[in-house]
Amino acid sequence: MTTTTSNMIHKISKRAHVAAFALTSLVLAGTARAADYPTAAVNTTGLAITDTTVTVGQLHSATGTMAISETGSIEAERMAIDQINAAGGILGRQIKIVFEDGASDWPTFAEKAKKLLESDHVASVFGCWTSASRKAVLPVFEKDNGLLYYPTFYEGLEQSKNVYYTGQEATQQIIAGLNWIASQKKAQTFYLIGSDYIWPRTSNKIARKHIENVLKGKVVGEEYYALGTTEFGSLINKIKLKKPDVIYAIIVGGSNVSFYKQLKAAGITSDKWTVLTISVTEDEALGIGGENLVGFYSAMKYFQSLDNPNNRKFVEAFKAKYGEKSVIGDVTQAAYEGPWLWKMAVEKAGSFDVDKVVAASGGIEFNEAPEGYVRIHNENHHLWSKLRIGQWNADGQCKVLYESDLIEPNPFPKGYQ
Amino acid sequence: MWNGIGRSRRKHLVNNPTKTIPMSQYSASELWSIFIMQGFSGLSLFSVLLLMALGLAIIFGQMGVVNLAHGEFMALGAYVVYLCSEVVHNHFPALVPFYFIIAIVIAFFTAALVGLLVEWSLIRFLYRRPLDTLLATWGLSLIMQQTFRSVFGAREVTPALPEWLMGSFKPTDSIDIPINGVFVMGLTLCLTAAVWLFMYRSRIGLHMRATVQNRVMSGAVGINTQWVDRFTFCLGCGIAGVAGAAFTTIGSTGPDSGSRYIVDTFLVVVFGGTTSLMGTIASAFGIAQGQSISGFFLEGTMGKVAILLTIIIVLMIRPKGLFASKLRS
Question: Mutate which of A232, A234, A281 to test chain B, going by most B C-beta atoms within 10 A?
């Protein structure tokens, strides 16, 4: 070859090299590479993180009376994690799940939480449903400085530095719901019913204070039945005797099926009675049967029938993964938000360390939430969200009748404690 | 919602929104309606308890076998009805109005068959070892629960009930008698009558009673005691299957539904006196009415507490139960 030709070839190949290098950099700059986040820097607390994987825990009841409600959360969290992995993972690492079954038994939840944090060293746990299970695992998370994303709407009065509450607390769900029903139905008398554990009891305490002090109404009855009860005959007769304007029901788990079937058989239907519940989502409606719920109201932040682009995509993806007949309730959607909120916090903090993730979480906004939009509160680990009131149809879906503005979470409301 | 409240009381409510309505202001017909409905839920509960206890009264009462898996046989009956419901709705839509009765019969035979298997493989070795039967049947109940979980899933299921079972009778405007309650009561009546006729008026029933009272003599007289035992166990399990099938009208069925029923079932049988069928009926009636009444005046769980305390006290006074048969011991 002549000198000029070889020079030219040299120049071209040099340009090709430069071009190739530039192109590769451009492509790779868009994705977070694990090499940009060396394990030693993102994990200073001994969590189960390698250069390619990060391990998280899932702690739900796959068996027992709560399985009917928690299965949706398990599926939603798995789908969120699969979607995150498909998009490249977190800090270039794929998420691995360790699943533990709490078996609807609160001591088992505590034991499994201990195992996840102390043996498996998971970076974060997505789990629990009942307040009882959350209370059981709380000391474990606080002692071992773990991170829990808790998806259920609950009674509030709690704020732990180790928990993020992706469900609504009482003031967002109970108070707004009561205000709506009181104004819509001119309700003055209420009959409060619940399952016998902390959430229904505390919720009804808050409801009673709101009814008596703010709405100036009257609570004509308040009763609790053990989880798993199937006999509601006496209760229904008492309700017929007292004739409340609103039956405010917080029955949880499998008992819902018996309760609503017996209500219908006793002639308590929506043409003459008003039932407002904060414990029936599409998951429970599947077991109860839509025909037993027609015309009753649920107060939730999310319904499967919500009409926005995020939700349409979400429902489509969920049904594609879990079957056309799948239903999606409020807790399922809140559970779906958990892994995404964690991912955003980790990326903002640039680390998996729990303290750094917590410090970075305040103010994070999730615009792709199926419920529309949520924002993590700057201080109290809860979410700004809207409340919706839905009325049940015979097909087990809700017609959304009312949507509030974004409500600020207030887990310690003055005057309700 | 305002139907059924007289005008004077409506005015009272409007003028005094925070005052409760005193009992005296209810019309006699309203109080009567409540009494009827409360009486009916007591009777309904009675038939539920009796249905559950009948099978166990035969197994535990007649044979002395402590079958802790009895609740699981009930759950088995319920699952069989669920399966029939799925099959009929997907493949034979024409049979939908009739399938329920047939499903109950199928549940009876399925549970009896499984009972036969269990007796042949497990129980017959343990007749003289009551503590071992306790342990063995407890293990059996765990195995059956897990089988249900693996086959049907952890979530609770309900069969699609036929139309004629839904809703309620309305003899007057304010009385609602649930139809499925009437159905369960009718079923219990038929079953109890059938069992009584069987035990006290048939040849096989005679053999059963003879074997229980004096096994050695019965064998000497030519009764095949082994087959009688097997048959008794099957009958008890079959009745449990029917009970479970009937309960699908009341609530949903999950893998652990059996454990919810077993405690009440044993309570009824022990309280009534284990060897007496009449005792089982009387104790089911007493417990049901007591629970219904205390559930009305006390609240929720406290009603159950009151009943259990009463039962404990009665059993302390009469340890053999209400109707203990007089035996030379």
Answer: A234
